[in-house]
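Case 530 in the screening queue. Each case pairs one protein sequence with one candidate compound; here the compound is 2-acetamido-2-deoxy-beta-D-glucopyranose. For every case the pipeline is the same: read the inputs, emit a complex structure as tokens, and attach any notable structural observations.

Predict complex for case 530.
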Amino acid sequence: MFAHPAYTPSTMFCVFWVALIAPLVSGVAVTIPLSVSGDAPGVTGNLVSLSIEQDRWLDWVGNTSRNSFFFNTLDNLVALTGSDPTIRIGADSEDHTQFSAAVQFVQQVFPPPTATVPYPEATNIVAGPGFYQAAKFLPSGTGVTWGVNFGGKNLTATFLETRAIITAFASPALKNAGITLDFLELGNEADLYKNNGLRASTYSISQYTAEWITFATNMTRTANLAGSNTRIWGAAFADSSHSSTGFSPQGIFANNILSSEPGGFINTISQHHYSGSFCSGNGGLLQDLMTKATIRSNLSSFTPDIQATQDRNLDYVFGETNSYSCHGAPGVSNTAGAALWTLDYALFASQLGISKVFFHEGIGYKYNLIQPAVLTRSILNGSPLATPQQPHVQPQYYAAIIAAEAIGNSGQTQAVELSISNTRISGYAFYEGGALKRAVFINSLAFLAGATNRTSTHLDLTFSGSGTKPKSFSVKRLVIKHADDASGLTWGGQTYETADARVGGTPSSETGTVAGGIDIPATQAIMISF
Ligand SMILES: *[C@@H]1O[C@H](CO)[C@@H](O)[C@H](O)[C@H]1NC(C)=O
Ligand SMILES: *[C@@H]1O[C@H](CO)[C@@H](O)[C@H](O)[C@H]1NC(C)=O
Ligand SMILES: *[C@@H]1O[C@H](CO)[C@@H](O)[C@H](O)[C@H]1NC(C)=O
Ligand SMILES: *[C@@H]1O[C@H](CO)[C@@H](O)[C@H](O)[C@H]1NC(C)=O
Ligand SMILES: *[C@@H]1O[C@H](CO)[C@@H](O)[C@H](O)[C@H]1NC(C)=O
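Case 530 output:
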């Protein structure tokens, strides 16, 4: 009946009336195991982490004083999980950075903004001691991965930068706060050097590995890695050939990177990934991003790499990722739908053995979780803003909060994906000490602005395995008006869209019963706690 557009006022009334008392609900069976064994995937509170484009690092953290907005966004997650934040600083601008002791903070050259790239990356960055020292403004306990220039193929630059990073982390301010240099990374996306002019067009994985070993030997000795807890992230490629003859973890392993002196300090392989590159967006593209099947196919293609990495007892992370390259697609990457993508993407990644997912961020990028600085140009098209936009969180930040609450502060949470036979509903259950605590469900059907019907899916809940069957639960909902909204979300009735990034508003309270099940409208995530 809804397919016919011949509405009269009375049929309109009828449609609304029917929708009000009997929303378009379909039922889906969900079986939740009451317990898991020790080999179910572990999830740490910093599963959702940040990768920061280093050119404007000081705009994130602060130069002479702390950027408290950014600090609060991280501290909120610490309060929920008890886990120390982990951040990576580097990316494209890592290969365009030099160190100079004569510069106090940083000097840099930016290309002019364009409509598709309103906030371009600096082409040239000269960092001074204060640039690295500013890491002291991070929350106490933060673990940092710092990227060092390899693209420039200048050993002096690699050496001076390494020494500056080590000096900063050895200073009392950082040591006393327990802010640690967990990892160094040498070079960003070296598989692209043959396309971007940093190396010859014939640059191969064997040439890369040999050259990396030479530079990394200097980095390793300069940083005295043998006498410290700092280790190295290997690979950090933009893509993967998944083969031993191309750029991939398998490729560096086949070229014996791990038996080299610096390779002995690689204990983590980092992979970069974007779901595509779109410099303009639309509702269809947003639905593609959110779709359960495309999230799974994007991530599952890395299964051979994860296996090859784990076979060598190394950890595997997504060291840089986000929705669409081009700093995000306008009206897609910056929206509430992207928050649902972020949540499903990070949680599904955990199921494949990806231990952390570092979402890439830069000042004014469309796909940010956080905009920590005042913006004077539109992130969507670069046009000047009549009123500067104050620091704020974007919709994806709610995904970090929801993942943090679902994982909780046990320090030993495990998560399993629930098998749900529905193309739009995904679900995960969370366990502490092997016992069921919470579940998250995501309805990734895009309800876009201007659409008229919003379906809802009923989940029929049953339990499997041994343990006490809960009879009731409390509910928190990520309420989204439209998938393409850029703001106005609430989580359990509360907002993080506040001037200081601290949670605001009054919590809502909702409970449900297992016998009654629960409804989840299109474009919503819910967490139920038993
Ligand atoms: C420090 O940051 C503030 C705020 O972003 C900026 O106005 C100021 O110019 C910066 N100072 C230096 C020395 O870079
Ligand atoms: C690293 O390279 C720099 C620049 O060539 C050199 O001065 C330094 O002695 C090297 N350090 C080590 C430990 O090889
Ligand atoms: C190499 O790096 C050093 C230190 O950053 C810099 O002074 C020098 O100009 C660089 N050399 C080239 C050829 O770029
Ligand atoms: C990744 O997801 C995008 C949608 O965001 C889709 O267009 C693309 O085909 C997917 N890639 C893979 C390898 O599944
Ligand atoms: C709107 O209704 C149609 C027909 O029932 C359904 O296929 C579509 O998924 C619905 N859209 C939303 C956002 O619920």
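Case 530 observations:
- The pocket of 2-acetamido-2-deoxy-beta-D-glucopyranose (ligand 4) is lined by residues 275-276, 288-289, 294, 297-298, 301 (CB under 6 Å).
- Residues 1-22 have pLDDT under 50 and may be disordered.
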